[in-house]
Amino acid sequence: MTERKTILDVKGLQTSFFTDDGEIPAVDNVNFHIREGEVLGIVGESGCGKSVTSLSIMGLVPSPPGKIKGGEILFQDKDLTKLSEKKMREIRGNDIAMIFQEPMTSLNPLFTIGNQLREAIKIHKKDWSKEQVQERAIEMMKLVGLPRPEGLMKEYPHQLSGGMRQRVMIAMALLCDPKVLIADEPTTALDVTIQSQILKLIKNLNERLNTAVLLITHDLGVVAETCERVVVMYSGKVVEEGPVHTIFNDPQHPYTKGLLESVPDMRFKKDRLYSIPGNVPKPGSVKTGCKFAARCEFAFDRCITESPELYQTAEDHQTRCFLFDPKEVQSHDRTIIES
Amino acid sequence: MTEPLLKVEGLKKYFPIKSGILGKVSNHVKAVDDVSFTVQEGETLGIVGESGCGKSTTGRMLMRLLEPTEGVVTFDGQELTSLSNSDMRKARRDIQMVFQDPYASLNPRHTIEKILMEPLNVHNIGDPKERKKKVHEFLEIVGLSSYHAKRYPHQFSGGQRQRIGIARALMTNPKLIIADEPVSALDVSIQAQVLNLMQDLQKELKLTYIFIAHDLGVVRHISDRVGVMYLGQMAELANTEDLYEKPLHPYTQALLAAVPVPDPDFVREEVIITGDVPSPANPPSGCRFHTRCPFKMDICSEVVPVFAEVEEGHSVACHLYEESRPQ
Q: Which of B81, B45, B49 lies closest to B66 in space, CA to CA?
């Protein structure tokens, strides 16, 4: 595989929400990068900070109460966290586009599909003629596999099914050939047969247009099928990062392991599901130590007092767990030898 | 074969579509259209299907939370569909329901004790002291503690609330529990806890489940038999192993092929179905799946296929298997 350039680099991102109950660190020192033309998945359970991460990249964190406290988001040598709203607006849609979970709420019910597609083009391509705009809109609708684009242009969102609406959203996101497409749970609201159509479309467009995709989801099946690399998040932190094959075949963090084992597999029947004990902690409730320590069956003293960093466990694979700290590994070996 | 615990015959639910200022009924949404199945005592019947296929409507009609338009539901030898409202209320002591959204199905103003006591009050079970004891006992059974009784629903997480929902369903010692998407609002790690709990309870209390869900992995895990619904009709019904290993109906095949598998090396069998589910107000003629079916024949758009057994315990509604049927 040829080495691909990093296109988006998130470094030490910290996004907090300031509420009456104090500061809630939704995203706590998160690092990851997306390379040109790759599909990166961020997976995690509710409240792990995966959506806030994507909103931070787009500069869409509601403020107040939210605020990007620290870190950098580097895109083409620019730090997105430092850009003015005006500059950010040029990047949004043009270079980085986003699609959301619920296509019904992302489209305006009062305007036709054509109207909304044309508006999106006109904002970014001010010098285009009417015909050019119309042509581009129809071209994009064909690209995402919408039937009879001319007719659909005149219809309203409620006349379309969920899958078709999500296709319209994808068409709209890709109008300006963005370099990065952020898809936040794009298929969660859809039925499985429609979900597989939309995932195939995203994958297909990624290959044809070489658009990098950041796919945010809670569904491990979706990740396994579409992504090349995976970032696993837990309680605002990245706990494991690596290529999709090693994450699924050789998971290292106890959380990733537990998560994979607790998914009922459609292909065979397990007698009993493995389940991670306890509940997902509320963001900010675990102050010291590893956030997963309370639910982890391998936890030891150090996990409760100290916060682990990301340890390199293989090429391109990192894990936030003391079990992979070279020092621990050494001392562990020693205790085995001594005993 | 022993007499089934629950027998459903020709169940239908048509919702009228009213139009004009006079509210004239112009058409019907055929949410459930002629569904029949049985449930044996102690087993789990899974019902799967995509949104709008009528699986939840079916579940609600079994308890008569929705009145069926047509059809007969027989439970434990008693014909539920002909009972009066007050007799039906008594019958519900043996049939309880667990709902999808643990946030919406618990009254936020009541303590857990009050919520769990309610079914006992309604059915007049025990005296206040016994009721209280029973609440504490069932809280422990579902993996909570008796001190939780004084708390309010908002003080619990989603998984804990679903445990409370299950405890409430168990309070009257029912025989049958209808669980409508009980784990789809929960995170994966919590989902596994609740599924394990439901399986343990089934063994301990000899419960019968009807488990309605859209997640095919979850349904395979928990069910003994599975029914697949499409547009208000049962497309296929078989033992879990048979249904997942050799699905007969093209829709079941497509549905199984569409589920993303958590294994990047898995090569799926391609079953291509295009388009969306048609509107249940105006379903296609003949077989309802023919508009999306890759094996469509001429007969499919004209004649409604019969839902009948092809092999023992494996029923399907598809013209492809018409000949292989035992006469």
A: B81
Q: Give the H or E element holding residue A157.
A: none
CATH H-level, domain A6-95+176-333: superfamily? P-loop containing nucleotide triphosphate hydrolases (3.40.50.300)
Chain A closest CA to B76's CA: distance in Å? 29
Q: How do the domains of chain A map onto residue ranges? A: 6-95+176-333
| ipTM surpassing 0.95 | no
Site of tokens 């898995």: B266
What pTM, to 2 d.p., does this model score?
0.87
CB contact under 8 A, B217 and A195: no
Q: Does A266 touch chain B (CB under 8 A)?
A: yes
How big, in percent rounded to 5, are the helix, strand and coil portions of chain A? 40, 25, 35
B7: nearest Cα among B29, B28, B37: B37
Number of domains, chain B: 1
Name the nearest CA neighbour of B269 among B259, B281, B279, B277: B259
- What is the token pair recorded at B275? 């388009």
Question: Starting at the edge strand that comes first in sequence, how are the strands of the sheet with B70-75 ordered?
Answer: B24-39, B6-19, B70-75, B78-79
Q: What is the pLDDT of residue B14?
A: 92
Q: Is the residue at B1 inside a domain?
A: no
Name the B residues in 167-206 with CB < 8 Å from any A CB.
187-193, 195-196, 199
Pairing of strands B44-48, B70-75: unpaired
- B249 in any annotated domain: yes
Q: Which residues pair with A30 in a beta bridge?
A: A13
What is the C-alpha separation between A331 and B61, in angstroms, rounded? 63
Domain hosting residue B133, numbered range: 6-324
Distance of alpha carbon B190 from alpha carbon B196, whole angstroms: 10
Helix B188-205 to helix B158-170 angle (10° resolution) is 20
Alpha-carbon separation of residue B51 from A213, A263, B8, B174, B215 (angstroms): 28, 22, 22, 28, 11
DSSP SS3 for A26: strand
Q: Is A56 helix (H, G, I), strand (E, B) or coil?
A: helix
Residue B320 lies in a domain: yes
A206, A215 Cβ separation under 8 angstroms = no
Cα–Cα dist A75/A72, whole Å: 10
Instruction: Please indicate, yes or no, if residue B129 is contained in any of the structural domains.
Output: yes
A170 interfaces chain B, CB cutoff of 8 Å:
no
pLDDT tens figures, A167-202: 899 999 888 889 999 999 988 888 888 888 889 999
> If you measure CA to CA, which chain B residue comes closest to A228?
B264
The stretch B38-53 carries a mean pLDDT of 92
Question: What is the rounded distance in angstroms from the CA atom of residue A4 to the CA atom of residue A199?
Answer: 23
* CATH number where B218 lies: 3.40.50.300
By residue count, chain A amounts to 339
| Shortest CA gap A63–chain B (Å) | 26
Using the Cβ of A148 and the Cβ atoms of chain B, whether some distance falls under 8 Å is answered with no
Can you tell me the distance from the alpha carbon of A89 to that of A124, in angstroms, rounded to the nearest whole number?
A: 10
Phi, psi of B38 (to 5 degrees): -130, 155
CB atoms closer than 10 angstroms to residue B308? 12
Is the backbone peptide bond immediately before A64 cis, with ω within 30 degrees of 0?
Answer: yes
- Distance in Å, alpha carbon of A261 to nearest chain B alpha carbon: 9
Low-confidence ranges of chain A (pLDDT < 70): 1-2, 332-339
Whether B240 and B226 have beta carbons less than 8 Å apart is answered as: yes
Tens digits of residue pLDDT in A245-303: 999 999 999 999 999 999 888 887 777 888 888 888 877 777 788 989 989 988 888 89
| CB-CB contact of A128 with A122 (8 Å) | yes
In sequence order, the 6+-apart residues with CB closer than 8 A to the CB of A288 are A304, A305, A306, A307
